[in-house]
Design brief:
Elements: H1 2-42, H2 49-61, H3 70-82, H4 87-96, H5 107-115, H6 120-130, H7 155-164, H8 175-191
Helix pairs in contact: 2-3, 2-6, 3-5, 5-6, 7-8
Length: 192
């Protein structure tokens, strides 16, 4: 009975030892996968572009003394948010607490790292963890109507082009209908 217990313990010990390398390999793979996922998201050229753009302007407008003062940085962010013209930047200001009507504020989470001269993309990624809407904001693409391949554009972009040309497509349901309407407006303008 004692020999069988020792044999059972030795067998369990050997099985456990054989599983350790497998567990280590699995853990290492999961660690590497987790480390690579944020890199691929942050590697996108337009990742957090609105946040980075606004914070870069704020950072450039600060004096050397203001760069060390949290309250001065927060006031500069609020001042910048009062003057923004683009809709996406207004939304960002609302999300971070730079607008008067903001429901919450992330200004301290922005001003502290800005005072420590952290890169704005890193700051934006940090505050994105608190409010995931921040890095979803993108600037609207400018589309050159004359050279654009209309068949590759989305219907929303086609509607914007149609509106910019002064056209309306009542009852249009298909992408091809928008394209034909835009082409007709292009022809009419080229004939003038």
């Amino acid at each position: 009975s004692l020999k069988t217990q020792k044999a059972t313990i030795n067998h369990l010990y050997l099985v456990a030892l054989m599983r350790i390398p497998i567990v280590l390999v699995v853990c290492a793979c999961l660690f590497l996968l987790g480390a690579l996922l944020p890199v691929t998201e942050a590697a996108k050229p337009d990742h957090c572009e609105v946040c980075i753009g606004v914070l870069n302007r704020v950072q450039a407008s600060l004096t050397a003394d203001q760069k060390k003062d949290h309250v001065a940085i927060e006031n500069q962010i609020k001042s910048e948010c009062k003057n923004v013209q683009k809709d996406r930047e207004r939304k960002l200001c609302y999300y971070i607490g730079g607008s008067i009507d903001s429901a919450s504020s992330l200004l301290r989470e922005i001003s502290k790292p800005l005072s420590q001269n952290l890169p704005t993309d890193l700051i934006c990624n940090r505050i994105n963890k608190k409010d995931d809407q921040i890095c979803t904001l993108r600037y609207e693409k400018e589309i050159d109507v004359k050279t654009a391949d209309l068949s590759t554009l989305r219907v929303g972009d086609l509607k914007k082009i149609l509106t910019s040309l002064g056209g309306v497509c009542v009852g249009c349901m298909e992408k091809s209908e928008y394209i034909s309407k835009i082409n007709a407006l292009r022809r009419d303008r080229s004939e003038l």
